[in-house]
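re: ur question from yesterday

yeah so i grabbed the chain u mentioned. its 406 aa long if i counted rite. heres the sequnce exactly as i have it in my notes:
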Amino acid sequence: MNGRLGGASMRGMLRRVCNDRGQVAAEYLGVLLLVAALVVALMTTGVGSTIAGAIADEIECIVSPSTCGHGGSGGGGSQAGALRARLDALAGLAARGGVFADLDAEARAALGRGDLAAADRALKRLEYYDGFVKAGPRGGLLGDLNSPGDTAFDALAKRGDIYLDGGRTSRRFFRVPPQPGRGVVALDFFIPDANSDGFRGDNRPEAGTNVLRSDLGVDKSRVMVVIDYETGRAVVTQTETNLDIHGVGYANEPRPTSINGDRGQWAYQGGLDVDETNQLNVHSDAGGVRLSWDMLNSISPLVVSVDGDVTLTEGADGFLHTGDFGNQGKVDRYPEVQAWQYLPDGREREIGRNDYNGGHNPVIGALPHCDLPNLPNLPAIGIGGHNIFDLPNLPNLPSVPGPCGP
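ran it thru and got these structure tokens back, copy pasting raw so excuse formatting
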């Protein structure tokens, strides 16, 4: 055994231990273990790690003969070979950089040291994202989130609103505390009608769709919020508002977005955006998530907003749970709102939906949930313990136009 003995030669020698049916005589196991001991002594050289990978594959052949095949990539049809084949199939995603390149490097390093379990974990994370990216432009938002490196992503977040498609859509990137195992949470705000009292709707069924598995364009929603709790990256997208009146084709770009109050209530962007910014507040921890929003379209200033304030609690099944979406005191009936969650283990489901039911009639939207305080009850007037007159209770003050702030 010398320095010219590489992994391929060793692999070929070891492969001949297996017969054509993938079975192994028991006495060869002792021989293989002796060779493994020799490799340990060689680990201080550049040869040892290469040979170790070959021996790991062949031990897999002995322990599980059904995986001991012929052909394939690297591992000759073994488990390691199958992992390499899966990794090579994701080369295009890895080439996008950022989180994807990191996962690719993690999987390849694990394969190099023979840690097949670690390689499989990294691969499953890559495949998780690949499924979204291939689903369409909505799932592709996770590609936009995770392609930049950390420095580049922070620069995107610092830019604030980023306008795309000639100003028809916008993106606002931000971070949340990572919660590995929670997967991805996505909210979709859309108008089912083709026309909403003079404004163009999204002309989609009220039942909605699987938010990130749909082939719909991002511009077929008013607002989308996508939060990747695996990486702690998030984005809010918006679509311009279009008048839908015969002979009128005016549209205005999306309003600026404030995340947890970071841009305040006013952020002039040109056009008719001379009043309030849209407000999105996201606060989460290991126990769950609280989301609140105060959104306006980009044409009618200081008129009506759509609002919500929901709390989602982490359940034992891994999903977030809430009853707030069906409570009109918590979430306006207009527009339609869907919330979906996608767990890393492949499970996914709708976790919330408001009771739209033609919610634009008779009024588009509702006042923001900026509740004024409830006034106290006044005391009774009396002398010496004798009640003379009960003062009337003061009323509970109503909600007032927003935005509400964080």
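noticed a couple things. Residues 225 and 236 are 4 Å apart (CA to CA). also The mean pLDDT is 80.
anyway ttyl
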